[in-house]
C-alpha cells in the first residue's frame, strides 16, 4: 500500500520530465506484483504468481515502448520536457 501511495504521489508531484513521470508508474506496477505474490502465497494458489509474471511482462513491454517514444521525441524536439510536448496540441 505504501508503494502505491508513493507512486501516485510521484506522478502528481513530478510533472517536469517524462521519464521521471514514468518511474512512479513502474513503482505502482511493482506494488501490484507484490500484492499478487503475497496473496498467492497466503491462499496457496498459483494464479497470483501467474498474474505477477504477466504484469512483469507487460511492464517490460511498456518500458521498451516508452523509451523508444522518449528517444524519438528527443531526436525531433531536442528536449523531453513536458512543457514543450504540451505545445504539440496547438
From TrEMBL:
InterPro entries (UniProt xref): NADH_UbQ_OxRdtase_chain4L/K, NUOK/Mnh_C1-like
Localization: Membrane
Family: Belongs to the complex I subunit 4L family.
Record flagged with keyword Disulfide bond: no
UniProt KW Ribonucleoprotein keyword: no
Pfam family, one: Oxidored_q2
Membrane topology according to the record: Multi-pass membrane protein
UniProt GO cellular component terms: membrane
Xref: NCBIfam families: PRK05715.1-3, PRK05715.1-5
Name this polypeptide is given: NADH-ubiquinone oxidoreductase chain 4L
Key words, A-Z: Membrane, NAD, Translocase, Transmembrane, Transmembrane helix, Transport
Protein species of origin: Penstemon smallii
Amino acid at each position: 500500500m505504501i508503494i502505491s501511495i508513493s507512486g501516485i504521489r510521484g506522478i502528481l508531484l513530478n510533472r517536469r520530465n517524462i521519464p521521471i513521470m514514468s518511474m512512479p508508474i513502474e513503482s505502482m506496477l511493482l506494488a501490484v506484483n507484490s500484492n499478487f505474490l503475497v496473496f498467492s502465497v497466503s491462499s496457496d494458489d498459483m494464479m497470483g504468481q501467474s498474474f505477477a509474471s504477466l504484469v512483469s511482462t507487460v511492464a517490460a513491454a511498456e518500458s521498451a515502448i516508452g523509451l523508444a517514444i522518449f528517444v524519438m521525441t528527443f531526436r525531433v524536439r531536442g528536449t523531453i520536457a513536458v512543457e514543450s510536448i504540451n505545445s504539440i496540441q496547438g
